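Replying to the earlier thread about multi-chain prediction with a worked example.

Input:
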Amino acid sequence: MNKLILLVVILFMGLYSLAQQKFTIGGTLKSKRTGETIIGGSVRSNNAGTVSNDYGFYSLTLPQGTHTLEISSVGLQTQTMKIELNKNTTINVLLDDAAKELEEVVVSATPRGRSLKSTQMGVEQISTKEIKNIPMLFGERDVMKAIQLLPGIKSAGEGNSGFFVRGGAADQNLILLDEAPVYNASHLLGFFSTFNSDAIKDVTVYKGGMPAQYGGRLSSVLDIKMNDGNNQNYNVSGGIGLISSKLNIEGPIQKDKSSFLISARRTYADMFLKLSSDPSIKNNALYFYDLNAKLNYQLSSKDRLYLSGYFGADKLGVGDLFSLKWGNGTGTLRLNHIFNNKLFSNTSLIFSNYNYQIDIRNGADEITLFSQIRDWNIKEELQWYLNDKHSIRIGVNAISHTMHPGDITASQFSSFNSLDFQRRYSWENAAYVSDVWKATDKLNLSYGLRLTAFSILGAGDFYNVNSAGKVTDTLHYNSGEVVKTYFNLEPRLAASYVLNTSSSIKASYVRNVQNLHLISNSTTSNPTDKWIASTNIIKPEISDQVSLGYYKNLAGSKYELTVEVYYKTMQNQIDYRDGANTFVNGAIEAELLFGKGQAYGIEWLLKKKEGKLTGWLSYTLSKTERKINGINSNQWYNARQDRPNDIAIVAMYQLNKKWSLSGNWIFFTGDAVSFPSGKYTVGGEVYFYYTERNGYRMPNYHRLDLGATVQLKNKKRWSSELSFSLYNAYGRENAYTIQFRQNKDDPSKTEAVQTALFKFIPSISYNFKFK
Amino acid sequence: MKLLANKFFFLIMIVLFTSCEKVIDVSLNDTAKKYVIEGNITNEAGDCKIKITQSKDFSENNDFSGVSGAKVTVSDNGGAAIVLTETSQGMYESTTIKGITGHTYRLNVTINRTEFTSSSTMPVPVNLDSLYIKDEVFFGNSVKLASIAYSDPVTIGNAYHFILYKNKDKESTVFVTNDDFTNGNKVTNDLWFADDNDDDSKKLKQGDTVKVVMECVDMPIYNYWYSIDAASGSSNNATPANPVSNVTGGALGYFSAHTVQTKSTMVR
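Result:
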């Protein structure tokens, strides 16, 4: 580790190389029609080039003289301008929408990281246009389901929005919405994600090679950015679907300068319940809603303020008997400041909250269980475009976590006692620095370091637990006392080498550290899953990943081939003891076991980016295993999400100006599961005997989905379209669960019963837009 | 309570998404047979029974025959070991042992020179105050439920195992609870069970006789019943595992010293 630090120091010392007279152009890229800032737009002059950052800011340093700048972004018209560069200059650029015909042919975006030169690898991007075209369950467009069609990203199950990246667990994905972590990104047991696709501007997934500004989870970063809102015109758009309806309103507050966006979605399954005359049905509740809102305000030519918020909740209720409510709330306040053409600053104040509440009523007995995780988070980042060779990022981040594992409130004559589980407090601090160095025309390097300090704070009791899971000692800490601080250094290294005009190779190494852990025994996302912070016994999870990639543009960049291999090790992985009960007010450590994991694989992606037919073919061959003392006789075993083969084919076809068609086909090896290897009797019932963890497999999964969209009207002020989709078009009965039980009619026999969920699910939705 | 919430949740999901079920063939490995010990001592005389069977392969029938010829002894609070006699194949009994609260009982089973041991402490008896049938409405369906009430003692560490009978039929659901969240209270407990596939035969109907056996068990036995229920593979998607047994030596099953009390009522 010390050698690494030395290496980084030496590399930074190389930054100050003197060169010929150079000047810097800086500014902001925006869409002319909407005024939305452009993320990842390209600004080039011959061989030199840069891309705009998350706020549309770019900086390009060029030698003195005449240059032809080419400014481009996917779906927008490329602009060229001739400039005479003899001083540092600010150039703000507005890009026009692409001509209609062009828009229809260039559907897919090339991920920024995929550009041959960029050192970024292991990155996937999906455009909102692609999300719109991919057929989905119940016709509900979903970012988190769309990304599951990309290599290395696996679905958490039938119709599920949860996902696994490169062998990691579901809680090892950092899901960010405008920088705010979202702790439970699913609605309705995972069948829908919390992200309303109408409000989303950009979706990027990092599977490996995470830049130093991201940290806190082992496997991936899903970075979702909301639209800023149109600062040119008012727009009202919406959609009516089988499951939900959506409405989106945006417009200028001050033309060219500031804008707002409000986007709402609500399901209405419960509206049908209301129609019932039976009061016992009428009183049931079942819905979720999402509300996204954003304001942005230009304070001066150098300062811009963004305020964005998300609030979403689910409610499930059975008459007066039982109700379960859960939801996320996030808020982000950001200030951009442009010091000069080379130096950009962003300051963020972020709030993030997840809670659930269960109410149970049984006669006079009323009980409420409340659980919450709440973060306050402050971040400062400087992006310093030092010269034409180096661009540097420096940042600091501090997060305060407060967790209420469970507060029980019981009525006076309840069977239950009122009880507040111990609150848990922690501080997560990080500082990072990274540099992207264009070493030569062919070689690019990026190197960075992230230092994290995770402090566990009192008040509270902490425990010592022996190997048998018995508490041997209880340690008391007062409020504000530091129980323990975990320091970790996370190197982030990457290199790219351009082989020729159409191909390159890349390599990367990253270390990630995770201090918040989701304690869940179930594969489906459950709103009552419990987040816990590291303690004196639960150590930070650490992963090290190396990856290598080959990138090639084929047929004049119409096609793009990507091949990446990776190997990842994971330390301090967590699993349950057999028979664990995690709903305890005390030493949860006594219920847990710790071990290690490894994952490796190869991912292919062939993408067709142009023409009437666009889409991709993705294939992943991978393995992921765990070794935890106390499980599977201390031998390596397959992680539940181990699925050696995973194939996705996605095709979108623009039939004519009115109709577009789409289809996707998915195949994967069944999950690794534990099936019984024998049976026995206790108390007259038959029980099953298990000999190994995840030693069996579910049947292979495959499915075809079809979709079609027809443009109904496309006038200047009004447009509308109708979308049809058919989920699981050939009605494959994919196993959702396999249960073992006694045959009802012949109790002398046992049988395996497969449950399949969705077969031939058609849907229709109507979308409109007032301009 | 959270378990109850999860059960509700799972039931609701089943109601929501009409799923399709079918019996499939799964090729399961065969494994070496394991001994299964079911040991019970109660506070009633003549109720010390140890049953020994063996596990089978999944494809075999559900006829679990007893294991004969084992040497089975039980000792009371460190006293001399009493040898149990085999009354029928695999069933070992003693008429002399009657469990006493606070006493620790040791079980020793030797089969073909392999020894299995266990111990269990009989807890304080807690009175089953009442058993009654109540109606609840669940998604438009009226459901009859057996509900029980007892007063949990002020000291912590009480655990209960209930067995529900409808007429002569034992309900397969494991009902187990402890006083983690109910200590010292008058506790009412609805014995909810899932009726797979809307199986009407399990539903409580007018005229049925409902019987509930309440067992006050010690914590290791609570853990056994809790884990056999939570990780038996019948619950939704949780990783299944073998229950946490208090028998050492590699046998399946349990050895429980518990108090028993029974109440019956008629569904009206």
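Helices of chain A lie at 2-13, 100-105, 128-133, 143-146, 269-275, 279-282.

Feel free to reuse this layout for your own posts.
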